[in-house]
Amino acid sequence: MPQVKFPKHFKGTNTPWLAYRVKRLKRLWSAGLSAGYIADELGLTRNSIIGKVTRLKLGDHKTKRDKRANAVDLLEKRFGHLVVIARVPNDSHGTRWTARCDCGTLTTVRGSNLHAGRTSSCGCRRG
Questions:
Q1: Nearest Cα to 8, choosing from 43, 32, 39, 38?
Q2: CA dist., res. 13 & res. 4, Å (int)
Q3: Counting runs of H as helices and runs of E as strands, what totals does the chain give?
Q4: Of 117, 44, 42, 122, nearest to 82 (Cα)?
Q5: What is the DSSP letter of 115?
């Protein structure tokens, strides 16, 4: 029987778990890549990846997107009118920092907002 080749973008429910896909899944999973990324690479759904990982008992892994493990130290760094002076406990959206504005006000901001340039002052420079 000839082997059926599925296009990379095919995401059907009947897509078989061929040996090369299982081997690649194991390699990508052990590298710490997310289930969503692996699904895109293999042309499958995220749920099928998670199901196969569970059945293969590959276990949990730290993904590259683990916010708390990869937090960058922003102490003493300046972002616009803000200078970071302390780290505060994380919230559900990631790392938070206390910063002092040039006007003297203390404010708590997310690290991602500082990096992206969405927060550059305590609010005194709006308008």
A1: 43
A2: 15
A3: 4, 4
A4: 122
A5: H
Dump pLDDT digits (tens) for 30-79: 888 888 888 888 888 889 888 899 899 887 765 555 445 555 788 889 99
Residue with tokens 């690479």: 41
Domains of the chain plus CATH, in order, are 1-66 (1.10.10), 69-127 (2.40.10)
DSSP-assigned letters across all residues of 8-40: TT---TT----HHHHHHHHHHHHTT--HHHHHH
pTM over 0.85: no
Are 107 and 117 in contact by the 8 Å Cβ rule? The answer is no
| CA gap 86, 97 in Å, rounded | 6
Residue 98: closest CA among 83, 115, 120? 83
